[in-house]
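Hi support team,

I've been running sequence recovery on a batch of backbones for a student project. Most finish fine, but this one hangs at about 90% for roughly twenty minutes before it completes. I'm not sure whether the input is malformed or the queue is just slow. I've pasted the structure tokens below so you can try to reproduce it. Let me know if you need the job ID as well.

Thanks,
M.K.
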């Protein structure tokens, strides 16, 4: 693992956290405004506002930890964790949006 790629990836993850926060806020507001949702659906949308950015910070922290403790280049795979969660969220939001 190189310091440069670890630094670049960590900064990119922190910027992605901000972007995902804004994405979830606006998409969840649009979905919630367009239809009547149950408590569970609203709870998932509200949790996603904080969960997706937290996963970005967590993945960056994991990669920095692995870098400091001699991790291999495969450790960069942790950067994909928030991307997978984002795909799940977007699928859920799209399904809720089409439900009306």
């Amino acid at each position: 693992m190189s310091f440069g790629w670890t630094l670049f990836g960590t900064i990119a993850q922190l910027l992605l956290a901000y972007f995902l926060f804004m994405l979830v806020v606006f998409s969840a507001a649009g979905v919630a405004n367009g239809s009547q949702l149950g408590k569970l659906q609203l709870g998932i949308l509200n949790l996603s506002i904080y969960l997706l950015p937290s996963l970005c910070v967590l993945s960056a922290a994991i990669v920095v930890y692995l870098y400091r403790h001699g991790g291999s280049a495969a450790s960069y795979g942790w950067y994909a964790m928030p991307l997978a969660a984002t795909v799940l969220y977007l699928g859920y939001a799209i399904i809720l949006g089409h439900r009306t």
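--
Follow-up from support: It reproduced on our side and the slowdown came from queue contention, not your input. The radius of gyration is 16 Å. No action needed from you.
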